[in-house]
Design brief:
The complex is a heterodimer of chains A (115) and B (110).
Chain A (H helix, E strand, L loop, with lengths): L3 E4 L2 E4 L5 E7 L5 E7 L6 E8 L2 E4 L7 E2 L9 E3 L8 E8 L10 E2 L3 E5 L1
Parallel strand pairs in A: 2-11
Antiparallel strand pairs in A: 1-3, 3-8, 4-5, 4-9, 5-6, 7-8, 9-10, 9-11
Chain B lengths: L3 E2 L4 E5 L4 E7 L6 E7 L6 E7 L4 E4 L2 E6 L4 E6 L8 E9 L2 E4 L3 E6 L1
The chains are: A mainly beta (115), B mainly beta (110).
């Protein structure tokens, strides 16, 4: 069973607020990912990290930023939330002692609504 | 530029019958293909996968077929059960990153 956690699960917030979405995994995976998904659409990769102090932007441009100071922690931050940021944000990880790099394990997601 | 496409947004099947989900891709660099299952308000869960060097992989009720020349893969679920009702995503890997299709919503009728 995958051990990857995301908080909060749901967040409703006003325009202009700064938010941080948390993602943690206890599997020792070195690779972590953030995806954004709207209903009926594909998951879009917005950030990824292949190890501590390594972060890259994904295929979909995003105003969010990420950091990877510890292996197990990969938070995503929006400095000033806007209604266009309303979406589901999914965190995933892969690698390490559990499954190699073939599968990515996903957290439960954060449903963000910006009013 | 969507590199992975699931052209059927929905599929309705009777309990006990076979469900067949299809997926097409365009990038020849993909080396590994996966199917994920997703319930509303939850993250995707891994279902089954196949390496690009194989053409079939089976796991219980789930079988994935890969046709590299046609750049096409399919997922067969037999027999379909009510608990299989969910959204199924096809994904393809290149350089540790996954590209996803838009998903197919499967509804299993009793």
């Amino acid at each position: 069973e995958a051990d990857i956690y995301q908080t909060p699960r749901y967040l409703v917030i006003g325009t202009g607020k700064k938010i941080t979405l948390e993602c943690s995994q206890t599997m020792g995976h070195d690779k972590m990912y953030w995806y954004q998904q709207d209903p009926g659409m594909e998951l879009h990769l917005i950030h990824y990290s292949y190890g501590v102090n390594s972060t890259e932007k994904g295929d979909l441009s995003s105003e969010s930023t990420v950091s990877r100071i510890r292996t197990e922690h990969f938070p995503l931050t929006l400095e000033s939330a806007r209604p266009s940021h309303t979406s589901q944000y999914l965190c995933a990880s892969s690698g390490g002692r559990t499954s190699g790099y073939n599968e990515q394990f996903f957290g439960p997601g954060t449903r963000l609504t910006v009013l | 530029d969507q590199q992975v496409k699931q052209n059927s947004p929905s599929l309705s099947v009777q309990e006990g019958r076979i469900s067949i989900l299809n997926c097409d891709y365009t990038n020849s660099m993909f080396d590994y293909f996966l199917w994920y299952k997703k319930y509303p308000a939850e993250g995707p869960t891994f279902l089954i996968s196949i390496s690009s060097i194989k053409d079939k992989n089976e796991d219980g009720r789930f079988t994935v077929f890969l046709n590299k020349s046609a750049k096409h893969l399919s997922l067969h679920i037999v027999p379909s059960q009510p608990g299989d009702s969910a959204v199924y995503f096809c994904a393809a890997r290149n350089d540790y990153k996954l590209s996803f299709g838009a998903g197919t919503t499967v509804t299993v009728r009793a």
